[in-house]
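User: Fold this; tokens only.

Assistant: Input:
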Amino acid sequence: MNAPPKIGPASAHSDSDEVVRWLTNDTRDERFLDNIFAELCVRIQQANIPVKRATLHIMIHHPQWLGARFVWADGMHEAEIARLDYDVRERSEYIGSPANEIHDGATEVRENLERDRSLGRKHAVFDEMRDKGLTDYVAWPFYHTLGKRHFVTFATDRPGGFEDAHVAALQKLLPVLRTLLETYVGSHASELILAGATRRGTGTTVRAAILICDLRDFTRISDNWPRDDVIDLLNGYFDAMSEPIERHGGEILKFIGDGLLAIFPLSEPQACANLLRAVSEARQAMVALNQKNGEESSRAPLNYGIGVHVGDVMYGNIGSRTRLDFTVIGPAVNMASRLETLTKQLGKPVLLSRAFADFVKGEFDLERVGEYPVRGFNDPIELFAYHG
């Protein structure tokens, strides 16, 4: 094969910066990680980094599968996905492999595939790569705060292997690859998923402020409006609500039709105050959205309700044997949901429980609404309205 053109360090770093920009900013609408990985590899090649083969190894702890391996090779438009069962670590394909080294603590696995086989690492994966004409191989782990090691590998057929500039450019991608998981499920959730809390019925207890928001009259809107208008409306509404939540450290765990569920873990001392700051900004964004909709299409203003509570919730996986949903459950979530329902009855768009209000008293102006029975709970709940 003809060797790719030789490039200097400045060129390698400059071209890889564009790949980092794409990975950071232009992948948010892609639902599937394997598609992102395949396009990433093509873009790496276009950046003059001579990658011929790449793999991404993720420990997902599916109820049946320990992890998944994404494999891409030159000329492939899609990455191949292989599932790994829980017994893989007992088999020869794993023992002595790069994966074995990474999971045992290696911070890098680098193998010169051009040298004599007798001098190199002894594993079938390296023999296979040599047989395919590959000349150099490198693997790096991703670091996660809860200690799990997922990793990515790159190989080239360039005579002499990767240059230092190529290696440095590839290393710049590592922090961004982890961010992809945070983009899909939130930083705390991704760490728990990656730490193994993803088998059905497993999880942990998290003390958090819970926010549940719901759009008013959505059934009427969806029944009477054109489909594209409904989707446009929902996108605008979710943007107005979700961006302030994420900006202030909240994690949106799910969108449910016209509603959303978010938490602010109390591991952050200002979590409750940050939640109310997010609510204030979201309400301002909704005012601007309603004004825009009224001017452009004479749409009636969108109304919503927000219920807020604080308490211990189970943070983990619920579902069937083949489909899991990473979420929070527990009485505290039920309370937030009931308060959201009461916002319409009481005519208060934002209702807070006394338990939550105690965390922010003195910092925010709250209106005491009174004590009200809440379905599913024995005692009346003292409620506060927030108008910020």
